[in-house]
């Protein structure tokens, strides 16, 4: 017997689901007047060029060296090209111009700047280029909350101290203990989450991801900025969660009940957002996420709305089992890393690659899962 639950998935803060794809320099142009990135079809673009321009563009692309990227930017610059429009952070135009205007013969600098100007795409359907949320991302977030619930109920803490498994196996070893089995008898095998799509399509926005220390310091956090395409806050996706009843012969000892599963989500993520809100308030980034949740879902949380976090830069705490965390913290050059039960930095969405203030920086990945049937 199956139980099917229709869900709406509300994006509260920028979400980036990695897909190992980037926007290639030959496939986009920056609309400087309107501040948007225009993604175009390369074949259609080449067809629309004059014979002279077509020959020139193909010649640049055939060079195949790092400097040719700058030549491509210069060739495309200020051209009126039709395509899919994507909103972008204000600082992207300035960085684009800086990269575009680099000296063509300074390959070392070009390589460094171009690497930092890579724009990572969020997960999308290749047939229409529209973003979607993989069901596996949602299921993984739910699973972490459920495992934390079981660990608390059984009083299992600091598993890494007592586990006899090798370091790379400890997390899997803990999961099997908590779920009373490996793959065949894993009760989460009965939980199916469909890929989520947005009716009418969801809009994306390109932002910077910058790393900030959780406590005010005169030293900056380590790690270069990243440029990410994100699903815009306010977007709504739809899908289903299906919980199958295991057969008597399955070996699954503790089937998952939807009410307990949903309760575990809020029990895990609400304290997490409250803790993060204290951090962002302390570093003067504000409390955007907490305010947005209160505005949109006041009185609904825990009834038919459940807080969840997905995607890149969700934070180490959101993807590890509470009470059993061993988060690797890198130290200075030549020093061994240390391990803590919490991260010391936080990745935030920014309008520029080097913000001069933390005001307006926004955490990634917060969403609300709503049961609609």
Which band does the percent of strand residues land in?
15-25%
Kindly name the structural category. Answer: alpha+beta
Extract low-pLDDT stretches: none
Query: Strand count, sense and closure of the main sheet?
Result: 9 strands, mixed
> Total number of helical segments?
10
Record the SSE blueprint.
Elements (H helix, E strand, L loop, with lengths): L1 E10 L6 E5 L5 E4 L4 E4 L2 H6 L3 H13 L3 H10 L7 E5 L1 H11 L6 H10 L2 E4 L12 H20 L4 H4 L7 H10 L11 E3 L10 E10 L12 E6 L4 E9 L13 H25 L5 H10 L7 E5 L17 E3 L8 E3 L4 E6 L11 E2 L2 E6 L2
Parallel strand pairs: 5-8, 6-9
Antiparallel strand pairs: 1-10, 1-16, 2-6, 3-4, 4-5, 7-10, 8-9, 8-14, 11-16, 12-13, 14-15
Helix pairs in contact: 2-3, 6-9
Short structural description:
By secondary structure, the chain is an alpha+beta fold.
Structure, described:
- The protein has 373 residues and is an alpha+beta fold.
- The chain folds into 2 domains: 257 residues, no CATH class; 104 residues, no CATH class.
- Helix content is 32%, strand content 23%.
- It has 10 helices and 16 strands.
- The strands form 3 sheets. Strands 2, 3, 4, 5, 6, 8, 9, 14 and 15 form a 9-stranded mixed sheet that branches. It has a 5-stranded antiparallel sheet with strand order 7-10-1-16-11, with helices on both faces. Strands 12-13 form a two-stranded antiparallel ribbon.
- It is globular, with a radius of gyration of 23 Å.
């Amino acid at each position: 017997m199956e139980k099917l639950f229709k869900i709406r998935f509300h994006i509260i803060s920028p979400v980036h689901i990695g897909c190992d794809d980037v926007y290639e320099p030959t496939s986009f142009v920056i609309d400087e007047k309107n501040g948007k990135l225009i993604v175009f079809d390369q074949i259609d673009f080449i067809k629309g060029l004059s014979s002279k321009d077509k020959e020139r563009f193909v010649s640049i692309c055939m060079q195949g060296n790092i400097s040719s990227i700058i030549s491509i930017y210069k060739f495309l610059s200020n051209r009126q090209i039709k395509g899919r429009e994507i909103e972008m952070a204000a600082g992207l135009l300035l960085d684009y111009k800086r990269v575009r205007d680099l000296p063509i013969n300074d390959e070392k600098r070009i390589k460094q700047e171009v690497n930092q100007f890579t724009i990572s795409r969020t997960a999308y359907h290749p047939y229409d280029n529209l973003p979607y949320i993989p069901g596996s991302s949602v299921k993984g977030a739910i699973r972490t909350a459920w495992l934390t619930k079981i660990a608390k109920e059984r009083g299992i803490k600091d598993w890494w101290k007592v586990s006899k498994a090798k370091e790379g196996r400890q997390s899997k070893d803990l999961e099997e203990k908590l779920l009373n089995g490996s793959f065949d008898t894993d009760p989460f095998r009965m939980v199916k989450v469909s890929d989520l799509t947005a009716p009418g399509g969801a809009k994306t926005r390109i932002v910077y991801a910058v790393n900030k220390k959780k406590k005010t310091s005169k030293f900056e956090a380590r790690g270069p900025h990243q440029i990410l395409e994100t699903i815009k806050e306010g977007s709504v996706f739809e899908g289903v969660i299906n919980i199958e009843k295991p057969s008597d012969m399955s070996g699954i000892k503790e089937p998952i009940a939807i009410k307990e599963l949903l309760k575990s989500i809020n029990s895990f993520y609400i304290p997490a957002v409250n803790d993060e809100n204290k951090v962002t308030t302390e570093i003067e980034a504000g409390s955007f996420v907490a305010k947005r949740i209160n505005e949109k879902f006041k009185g609904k949380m825990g009834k038919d709305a459940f807080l969840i976090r997905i995607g890149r830069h969700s934070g180490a705490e959101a993807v590890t089992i509470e009470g059993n965390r061993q988060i690797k913290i890198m130290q200075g050059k030549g020093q061994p890393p240390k391990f803590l039960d919490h991260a010391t930095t936080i990745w935030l969405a920014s309008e520029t690659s080097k913000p001069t203030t933390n005001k307006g920086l926004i955490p990634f990945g917060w969403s609300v899962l709503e049961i609609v049937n």
